[in-house]
Amino acid sequence: MKKTVSTFKKAKEEGTKLTMLTAYDYSTAKLIDQAGVDSILVGDSLGNVILGYEDTISVTMEDMIHHGAAVARGAKEALVVIDMPFMSYQASVYDAVMNAGRLMKEGRANAVKLEGGASVCPQIKAITEASIPVVAHLGLTPQSINAFGGFKVQGKSEADARRILEDALKIEEAGAFAVVLEGIPAKLAKIITEKLTIPTIGIGAGKDCDGQVLVYQDMLGMFSDFVPKFVKQFANVGDVMKEAFENYIKEVQAGTFPEEKHTYSIADDIIEKLY
Ligand code: KIV
User: Fold this and answer.
1) CB of 135 closer than 6 A to ligand 1?
2) In 196-236, where does DSSP find H-type helix?
3) Which domains does the chain show, CATH number per domain?
4) Closest residue by Cα to residue 25 from 40, 5, 39, 3
5) What is the pLDDT along the chain (275 residues), one digit of tens a residue?
6) How far is CA 260 from CA 231, 263, 264, 275, in A?
7) CB-ligand 1 contact for 203 (6 Å cutoff)
8) Residues contacting 100, CB < 8 A, separation 6+
9) SS3 of 70, please?
10) CA-CA distance, 205 to 209, in Å (whole number)?
């Protein structure tokens, strides 16, 4: 059965943990969906793990729509959330609603995610009023790394912790149905989780969040440029892939692949006529 915003609401009420993983293509989305995840996030982290950028700043609406639509075709049950890329919502409420609408119409998103607190509440309210469910994102928000001065854990001082908590209450009031908490102390995430009526989805925010999200290349050991402290590698698919690629190269070079069973036949008399 298709997961919806009601699945998130019910999970918070019943205290069951929500699961979210990123995906950026049809085949991976299908596998993740079949595993039974609640939600697939088409994160703008695709800038890092798919396109090889240093950060998410250069990711475009076209990138998000292209990858989002592929994921949506593979996700039969999981709720598909597509990230709003940098500068697709910050400049105006009008931009935000129109771009969220594109992610839903062209990318087939079930919901959109955007980064920020009080400053983007007018956008969250307007997008929600356009019947597009919104996931908010607080803490170490990667689109703000230039303002933060790098990828730094947020909310460690009293003032910062208080601001993030206040932002969380504001985005809930503005209409967000869930919030991603990234790179903040676990005890702060716990307080936020207790104070909100919408679910918190943590990444580097400890075990007390209502759910967890990870970038799939990180949890499968497929992305080695940078491995954050909060990542657990549930498998080492990167090594398995490398070994398979090496075996393929060896077998092609040695002439042991393809074998008879990998080839198509044709009648000998037809072949003779071609000589
Ligand atoms: O872009 C992304 O993948 C994200 C997650 C890390 C939460 O925003």
Assistant:
1) no
2) 216-219
3) 5-236 (3.20.20.60), 241-274 (no CATH)
4) 40
5) 999 999 999 999 999 999 999 999 999 999 999 999 999 999 999 999 999 999 999 999 999 999 999 999 999 999 999 999 999 999 999 999 999 999 999 999 999 999 999 999 999 999 999 999 999 999 999 999 999 999 999 999 999 999 999 999 999 999 999 999 999 999 999 999 999 999 999 999 999 999 999 999 999 999 988 889 999 999 999 999 999 999 999 999 999 999 999 999 999 999 999 99
6) 44, 5, 8, 22
7) yes
8) 84, 89, 112, 127, 130, 132, 134
9) helix
10) 7
| Count of other CB atoms within 10 angstroms of residue 256 | 10
Residue 202 CA to ligand 1 center (angstroms) comes to 10
**CA pair distance 19, 14, nearest whole angstrom:** 15
Residue with the nearest Cα to atom 8 of ligand 1?
A: 43
pTM: 0.97
Annotated catalytic, 194? no
